[in-house]
Amino acid sequence: MTDRAEAGAPSDGLRYAAIVAVLLVGGIHLQQYDSILKDVPTIGTLFILNAAGAAGIALAIAGLRGRALALPALGGIALAGGAIVSVLIARYSAIFDYSEPTYRAAVVLSLAFEVGAVAILAALAAKSAK
Q1: Out of 28, 43, 65, 105, which residue is the most buried by the measure of CB atoms under 10 Å away?
Q2: Which DSSP letter does residue 1 get?
Q3: DSSP string, 98-114
Q4: Phi, psi of 95 (to 5 degrees)
Q5: Cα angle 113, 8, 57; round to 5
Q6: How many Å apart are CA 30 and CA 119, to the nearest integer?
Q7: CA distances (Å), origin 95, targets 51, 55, 59, 102
Q8: pTM of the entire structure?
Q9: Is 8 helix (H, G, I), strand (E, B) or coil?
Q10: pLDDT tens for each residue of 52-80
Q11: Secondary structure of residue 41 in the 3-state scheme
């Protein structure tokens, strides 16, 4: 029996949605790095690392099947979840001497992408763990 035929295996549609969700999270971090954060110490580096991590996770999800998808799905949850926590800390306090002054459009969009990614990746992890 192939991984695709396994009972409870994630559908290709769920895998594709997870790939897109993770790439959206990384993409907005890359865009924000390029537009306003490249000169911010530590934060700029973290935004590049987020984008690189998202690309790696997306590639892993694209290349794996069955139960092997659980690990990159959990990695994606950690990536997006960490970004959510970080932006909330930056908004209401400071993180690495950086604070986010307002919920500007890019921040709201980033939070929406991250929450969506966590939900999709959680479904992928649950389906692949069966």
Answers
A1: 28
A2: -
A3: B---S--HHHHHHHHHH
A4: -135, 125
A5: 35
A6: 22
A7: 19, 24, 29, 15
A8: 0.91
A9: coil
A10: 999 999 999 999 999 999 999 999 999 99
A11: coil
Cα distances (Å, whole numbers) of residue 68 to 3, 30, 40, 57: 10, 27, 37, 12
Whether residue 113 contacts residue 18, with contact meaning beta carbons closer than 8 Å, is answered with no
DSSP class of residue 130?
-
Listed as own residue / partner, the contacts of 107-114 with beta carbons closer than 8 Å and 24 or more positions apart are 109/28, 110/25, 110/28, 110/29, 110/32, 110/83, 111/84, 111/87, 113/21, 113/24, 113/25, 113/28, 113/80, 114/25, 114/80, 114/81, 114/83, 114/84
Written as one letter, the residue type at 26 is: G
Q: Do residues 61 and 22 lie in contact, with contact meaning Cβ atoms separated by under 8 Å?
A: yes
Residue 78 CB partners (closer than 8 Å, separation 6+)? none
> Cβ contacts of residue 106 below 8 Å, gap of 6+?
28, 31, 32
